[in-house]
Design a protein that fits this description.
Layout: E1 2-5, H1 8-17, E2 22-25, H2 30-43, H3 45-48, E3 52-60, E4 70-78, E5 88-90, E6 100-105, E7 118-120, H4 123-133, E8 137-146, H5 156-172
Parallel strand pairs: 1-2, 1-3, 3-8, 4-6, 6-7
Antiparallel strand pairs: 3-7, 4-5, 4-8
Length: about 170
Amino acid sequence: MLILFPTQLEAEPFVRLCPDASVVISGVGMAATAATLASLYASGRLQEAECVVLAGIAGTYTDTLAPGQVVEVVQESAVELPERFRVVYHNEPRCTSLRAVSSYTVHTGSAEYRGAELENMEGAAFFALCNSFGVRCMELRAVSNRVGESFESWRVKEATEALATELLKLKNKE
């Protein structure tokens, strides 16, 4: 299993628990994620992985998800594209027993709520590239905040610790 984290901050709790895991810091946003995946593919490392996991924090639009809750994203869409160009990426079958959610991928600020439960900055690019490369993948997100809250109120430590715990369970199943 190869695990991508957008930032070192998101990766640190898991790396402490599992220092031998195959971890890559992919960078924040769709462009950085796409570039990292392309580089991993060119090196053959992406194809060697049984499963590639994108793991990170996310904001929620709903009251049904609480800070620290870890979910499996099964649908992504880059919502800032005009509707006629927007693609919805699906990742089925599910890989975990975690709650399955849909997410919007954004690159500037918060998207208007239109049905997705989460918001992140990398997922659509991750699904698009993994699907085009024929690589098995999954996306796990831990809720750190409500969309629109100031960064000072985010519960990043709680979210990254919960994410690390779920990833360790997943790794131990390998």
